[in-house]
Design goal:
229 residues; alpha+beta; Rossmann fold
Length: 229
């Protein structure tokens, strides 16, 4: 059961007897497993979200001043992920714990972290608060295009677009008919004129396009030199 799991790990941490049982009850309450009446459920009956909470409870058994959490919301549904994020923020703000939180989700990083280190190929490429990082590319805007497949030479267009973009080109499938293309530019008017010429020259049809403010994802792509795949 979840309780037995925590008792086992607590004993490895040197806890025992009444102190161990009390601490197990405390951490299960803290992570919301008591609220779900999941203390004595079998682990194999736990949902993915409950397993994530149990992992966090294990990490809290010894009440460490520093928590290292490796993608704690990976595979969780949106509601479970939100609850885990809220709990992590509470541990930092209310209990004063230092939390080192690794994630590939830039949206999540901005929600949870007050300071971010971007790592590429094992090295820190830049760091700062979310706002500081976005301000470093404040002269950059993100262009999002939706291009209809089969309307022209898409591969040639993407290769030529990479020469116009700042920091690479990202693509995402939108069903079988459309491809979303996302890239950063500095001079919006000049760059869009080039992009429109490339579209026309490649015989491609753009279903829509928009220009948006940079996000942390854009910061990551800019500093790591992302390539289209």
């Amino acid at each position: 059961t979840g309780r037995e799991n925590l008792i086992y790990f607590g004993s490895l941490y040197g806890l025992s007897g009444a102190d161990l049982r009390k601490r197990v009850d405390e951490v299960m309450e803290l992570v919301g497993l008591s609220e779900l009446e999941a203390e004595d459920k079998l682990y194999e009956e736990y949902s993915t979200g409950m397993k994530a909470r149990l992992s966090l409870a294990r990490a809290l058994l010894k009440d460490p001043p520093i928590l290292l959490l490796d993608e704690p919301t990976l595979g969780l549904d949106p509601m479970s992920a939100r609850k885990v994020r809220d709990l992590v923020k509470s541990l930092a703000l209310r209990d004063g714990k230092a939390v080192i939180y690794t994630t590939h989700n830039m949206f999540e990083a901005e929600l949870v972290c007050d300071r971010i280190l971007l790592i590429d190929k094992g090295s820190i490429v830049t760091s700062g608060t979310p706002e500081e990082l976005k301000n470093r590319i404040s002269d950059i805007r993100t262009v999002v295009l939706q291009v209809r497949r089969g309307s022209g030479d898409l591969n040639t267009f993407l290769n030529k677009l990479a020469e116009v973009a700042v920091g690479g080109v990202m693509t995402e499938e939108l069903g079988v008919d459309y491809l979303e293309i996302k890239f950063n530019v500095r001079s919006v008017e000049e760059s869009l004129n080039k992009v429109m010429r490339l579209l026309t020259g490649g015989g491609l049809t753009a279903n829509s396009f928009k220009v948006v403010e940079p996000t942390l994802e854009d910061v990551f792509i800019y500093f790591t030199g992302g390539k289209h795949k």
